[in-house]
Design goal:
Helices cover 32% and strands 23% of the residues. By secondary structure, it is of the alpha/beta class.
Amino acid sequence: MTLARHGATSRGGVNRQALSAEDIEARRTMIGWARGIGCSAFGDALGNFFIRLEGSRPELAPVLTGSHLDSQPTGGKFDGVYGVLAGFEVLQAIRDSGLVPVRSVEVVSWMNEEGSRFAPGMMGSAGFAGARTLTEILSVRDAGQQSVAEALAELARALPDLPSRPLRTPVHSYIEAHIEQAPVLEARRLPIGIVTGIQGKRTFRATVTGEESHAGTTPHRRRRDALLSATGMVQALEKLCFDPQDITRFTVGMFRVEPNAPSVIPAKVVFSIDIRHESSQRLIELGDAVLPLCSAHAGPCDVRVEELSTAMSLEFPESIRSDIEKAAARLGLGHMRLLSAAGHDARYLNDHCETGMIFIPCLKGVSHHESESATAADLAAGARVLAEVVWARANDLP
């Protein structure tokens, strides 16, 4: 609730986009909390933010947990933030117990998981794990044409005493706690989900270019209406992705028209394409059809399709799934295994170290919305399981 004040909206949600002033203030709050319990805080070249509890053998690769602090423009209080604060609760519980883990334990908030300000999302985790280069990430610009590099410079000026460390540092294992963002656990009345993996996702940006002209005087045969061409593409893509089994996910979440004037034929449309499927093969087939299908429906306009991100379906290692399952059972908490339909930073960490995820229910499965909610009991249950797994792994010797 305290962090939700940074970027609070009038409808009870949060607008705290990556590297914004609100994001910086949330980090400042967490730095104060970290230092208050004797932990250190630091960042890296991509604006990922870490809190570290030192272990008895600090030279060993640490156990990492966390998620993200950034939100959608009309986001909720729990998406991402829960994983960061559950991780911080683990540090505080270890510190309060008087115990010292063998491996250090670190809590991370990854930069720009949501992708609402800078596209695509999960930039910080992708760069940390080496899936994207620092150069390509720093050059990305938001809608106001500010680059990631410029936003990171503002972050550095705002938090000048925050040390920095290199990217791609070794990690023993990564466990991410998160609200489910779907209704399965709530419907089953189970507090804990052991995430088996993440379904695949491909994202694109389509730019349709026509010609600006007068709405009253230009004959239809001479028009190059970018909006009509773009809507034809969207309808064709929806038909391509129609799935009677309701497994495929197709979304156009951003649609920008220029000049966006009532009496002017649209000259340019930019829209996003988000396709997801649990089968990597089907995802490849659907994604590869995007460019030819858009070209076929361009009419008198030109179209350029740019693929922003590709992530095939993945499965988390059985070792970490089993650890989470055993911890839930020891604590007497009901649980089940399930696939994540949403993307998470754990996707990229899975290529860097042993990785797993813990889900807890959220109200009606609603997320990316200001009404997003979770119960105190479920939040605590997830943190207890996380603590068990983190502690066990932090005492795992080479």
